Amino acid sequence: RHKCLRHAGKGEKLMHFPAGLCAQATAMNNLRIEEKxxxxxxxxxxxxxxxxxxxxxxxxxxxxxxxxxxxxxxxxDMFVEHRCTDFGMDSSKNxxxxxxxxxxxxxINGRLAYVFSQxxxxxxxxxxxxxxxKICKIMDQAAMVGAPVIGLNDSGGARIQEGVExxxxxxxxFLRNVLCSGVIPQISLxxxxxxxGAVYSPALTDFTFMxxxxxxxxxxxxxxxxxxxxxxxxxxQLGGAKTHTTVSGVAHRAFExxxxxxxxxxxxxxxLPLSNRDPAPVCECHDPSDRLVPELDTIVPSExxxxxxxxxxxHSIVDEREFFEIMPMYARNIVVGFARMNGRTVGIxxxxxxxxxxxxxxxxSLELLTPFSVFLTSGCLDINSSVKGARFVRFCDAFNIPLxxxxxxxxxxxxxxQEYGGIIRHGAKLLFAFAxxxxxxxxxxxxxxxxxxxxxxxxxxLRGDVNYAWPTAEVAVMGAKGAVQIIFRGKEANAEEEYVxxxxxxxxxxxxxxxxxIIQPSSTRTRICHDLDILASKSQSSPWKxxxxxxx
Amino acid sequence: MAAAxxxxxxxxxxxxxxxxxxxxxxxxxxxxxxxSSVYDxxxxxxxxxxxxxRGEIACRVIKTCKKMxxxxxxxxxxxxANAVHVKMADEAVCVGPAPTSKSYLNMDAIMEVIRKxxxxxxxxxxGFLSENKExxxxxxxxxxxxxxxxxxxxxxxxxKIESKLLAKNAKVNTIPGFxxxxxxADEAVRIAREIGYPVMIKAxxxxxxxxxxxAWDDEETREGFRFSSQEAASSFGDDRxxxxxxxxNPRHIEIQVLADKxxxxxxxxxxxxxxxxxxxxxxEEAPSTFLDPETRRAMGExxxxxxxAVKYSxxxxxxxxxxxxxxxxxxxxxxxxxxEHPVTECITGLDLVQExxxxxxxxxxxxxxxxxxxxxxxxxxxxxxxxxxKSFGLPSIGKLSQYxxxxxxxxxxxxxxxxxxxxxxxxxxxxxxxxxxxxxxxxEALKRMEEALDNYVIRGxxxxxxxxxxxxxxxxxxQGDISTKFLPEVYPDGFKGHELTDLERRQxxxxxxxxxxxxxxxxxxxxxxxxxxxxxxxxxxWELSVHLGDEIYPVAVxxxxxxxxxxxxxxxxxxxxxxxxASPLLSVTxxxxxxxxxxxxxxxxxxxxIQFLGTVYKLQILTKVAAELSKYMPEKAAEDTxxxxxxxxxxxxxxxxxxxxxxxxxxxxxxxxxxxxxxxSMIAAKTGxxxxxxxxxxxxxxxxxxxxxxx
Lengths: 552, 711
Hints:
The structure holds 2 protein chains of 2 kinds.
Chain A: H1 20-42, H2 46-54, H3 60-67, E1 74-76, E2 101-108, E3 111-118, H4 129-145, E4 149-153, H5 164-180, E5 186-190, E6 193-195, H6 200-204, E7 207-211, E8 216-218, H7 222-229, H8 235-239, H9 241-248, E9 253-255, H10 258-269, H11 310-317, E10 323-326, E11 334-341, E12 344-351, E13 356-360, E14 372-378, H12 383-398, E15 403-409, H13 416-421, H14 423-436, E16 441-450, H15 451-456, E17 466-469, E18 474-476, H16 480-488, H17 495-503, H18 507-511, E19 517-518, H19 524-535
Parallel strand pairs in A: 3-4, 4-5, 5-7, 6-8, 7-9, 12-15, 15-16, 16-17, 16-18, 17-19
Antiparallel strand pairs in A: 1-2, 2-3, 10-11, 11-12, 13-14
Chain B: H1 3-9, H2 17-30, E1 48-51, H3 55-68, E2 71-77, H4 84-88, E3 91-96, H5 107-117, E4 121-123, H6 133-141, E5 145-146, H7 151-158, H8 160-169, E6 177-180, H9 185-195, E7 199-203, E8 213-215, H10 218-236, E9 241-245, E10 251-259, E11 265-277, E12 280-286, H11 293-309, E13 314-322, E14 328-334, H12 341-348, H13 352-361, E15 377-384, E16 386-387, E17 394-395, E18 398-399, E19 402-404, E20 412-416, E21 423-424, E22 431-439, H14 442-454, E23 457-459, H15 465-473, H16 475-479, H17 486-490, H18 502-522, E24 541-548, E25 551-560, E26 563-568, E27 571-577, E28 586-590, E29 593-602, E30 607-612, E31 615-623, H19 624-629, E32 644-646, E33 651-656, E34 663-664, E35 669-675, E36 678-683, E37 688-693, E38 700-701, E39 706-710
Parallel strand pairs in B: 1-2, 1-4, 2-3, 4-5
Antiparallel strand pairs in B: 6-9, 7-8, 7-9, 10-11, 10-13, 11-12, 12-15, 13-14, 15-22, 16-17, 18-21, 19-23, 20-22, 24-25, 24-31, 25-26, 26-27, 27-28, 28-29, 29-30, 30-31, 32-39, 33-35, 33-38, 34-37, 35-36, 37-39
């Protein structure tokens, strides 16, 4: 009987032998297959689909439809059903072909991607053993062929009826998340609830995006929180998109609704290589690589305490002013994100002089999501910005994406809040990340590069390939005022002037070869594009090790 | 090409007048600046000149100085340290912090710079110290030449009453009127009849148009007298009334004069400046469609008579109101170079700045009245950083993230003092540039203006290109049927942008959809040979849904080579372009019609804004599938704006008239915001109790900053 089934691809007519008993059986089979297929496409049924729509959410299949190129989705495991027999789960009305997740592979702008999309209409998207097994299957294959995995999360959590089977399923996924880390890009898009142990899969992936108002991420929900800590908090306050993109740093970006999120994900996908075996993709580019950017010659204010927007510099240098910022609302004193230079994906890291470091006061009450201590030290590195930067740099290094670093940093942020919070070990993460990175590294010092922060920000000493200084650069141990107080104890009258003359310029670094050239800011784009062409064949390795021990 | 060397070698001393006219014509066609470059290198002039101004006019003066071989000194405030005029000048000195009273109006500092740099002359530009007799006096006392008339003329013309008296004596038409105590209504009627209806009646002591009443007959005069005399007595304690000829639907036409210190004066034809908003000119042209040669000569001769009467030297402007029967009345005389001087330069070929410098040096005029031509037509648009959708223009600030002047369009002159990356700040006038186009006739000049406006790239600040473009193509403007009330008459409910015709809407939809598809196709094109082959899409047609305004249009696009065939509203359109997606300007041909459009923004969600026919349209383009699914997307609750008051523009809070707990009624003034010399009264949108006040007098606020909340 099984031989009759040659191929059961999507929508194709089933092949069968034309005669005898076999034909009868085949006809019956065909009917069953069609029935199952139809049932699978309907998920939890029309009523639940309508309820999903009422919540402002799309169904698992609608999401895949929007994420992938038209007609490119090849589904796996449409007939898989859960295996639970307890609590009446084995009755036929509790069986849904495909169970609570849709998995498969498809194309995004022609490039291969593996996708799983949790189906909230089937048991609230809860994770059964079968559900986990389906996800693991595509992850295994994605790792094998070297293509990214995109998870569309919308799940109530573990399938309680299955008990430890469900927990085992989570662990199977976690293991694969870890093994795939640094091998293929993994992206999570949270499009509904994601609570309890389930949160750790997105947390292990490279990027976590959220949908505003309809998605939540938390370890324990408001009810448990109330019973344990007596805090009154809503789902949105506890784990909504705003919380995670501004306060916790768990999510990398939030989008308006399902459609907005999926369309943005398509665009984001174009920046990524398919795996660590592939170079950063190069897109067709209409922006001339030798375009001069005259406004950069005057963008840095003459007063060194005055702010400017690093995003202005980034936008004017990259292709077509397109910059896909990662964590735009979190630790805004550092800017990270993807852009293209002459069509090639690059990762950009920049200190943001416009934004004073914002450190969260550990607040006891959950109403108090807003009290921040604002320091007037713009563009400083602090705990959050170091961690944000480090994670981004490591992603780029893992996936062959060249790094371009714009430096205007007055140093690390002082204070008890920072020291008690462990700025030493967190700051070390960024230092570690830049030092271990072997992708092409280009650094532009636009203004201040003071103290240890100078070393950290992709300096020559950390194997920077090309390090430039603008004429406005000041590479020194610290600002003139502080330095003069230490050197002269405030006794020398013209000391500050002397110090400025000596150090508030790019020469001390340039004469030692710590910067390769002092360049006209307007030529920055041209220079970087040329450098990237040359550095495309860069090869550099570090000593053999099982893995490095980044100060976590 | 033949003219190019001529331009450089300049004129010889004994050039015949007729030659210069011819010369000017050459320059009009060939020179980038559209004014004459006739310059005699043997004529001794100043060695160093200071420009007591900023922005475009400072740059304009420096250009002529460079041509004449004069070294230039720029002054600037600290925020202007990187300004274009600073870079253009040979020397630049900071005269103080950003506020004009501490920098560009800071006479002590400027005098100090003059002494230090040994500048021999000062060109004041317009505004700032240009009509300040004290400044002119101080310069004179230190032996520095002021490029402008002498103090006497500045003083005489600066005083409204004195200038009118002088004009009357010089037999210049002034607005007939009576200013004094009127005994009774009968006397008012007698005066009104003498003047001729319509008349305007108001209390003499009331400033501006306050309490002004218009009377068209005896009855209305009696009524007006009653009201105005009551008001005069009660409000001002001053019985005097002003009864004056009311000029209905006036045009604002001004005559450029040029006089030397030897008693010679010329009139350089007129400029039509009727298109105004809040008494500020927006579009100017020369000549005026309205004047016939007789009226022009009559106005010119009266202007010259007035100039001679005050022993005027340098360039000056005599402003007239002209009624529908071509009666003209003297308004005032501006004793400086006007903003709109370029249109005069275009049609006469004279470099007015050069002539001002020559005259200031004591040279007699080189031209006779008969040498002053009207060559062709010139139109000037004032391009402002302001939002024309808010009372025809509220200032906007920001960084010019992208800026490209349309200099590739023929016969375009752009006078500007900014460049890509410049900041438009709250401290100074929000003018971005003056865009001037020239043509052999008005139609040609206007056609070029249309093209120039479409090709002008300004990003990062709001701008008034949409309004300018609408004005210059409006049938009333094209016919020359304009007055100072043009804008409020044509747009009684405020300016709302270009109104698309059905054809234009289809063109816009087709262009936007084609652009979307071009972008989608490009995002599938990766270079190199990837390890996992890319699945090439064989797709040749797209079903899209385009959201524009309140409508959703189904649009079908199919690709044929580099062009797209687009079906909208049952009509097929053919759209061709190079589809350069990085260029700020995109030239597309839609069914044979060429249009220059600008894609201002786009994002992954299909939202895009496109500047089309001057106006920026917001669209959202989705595939049919996505559009169908978008009905399930939750509506985001919009902020209730009636109970909050936000600043419509960046500026300074001048006064706050409410405090928390106050009850305000709809329309009541809540606070006053001042920006760029303009005060705006913020009013309550509904009746209610004040919940919180987030600003106080003296605060600097940004656009959209929360000012006051109601309960």
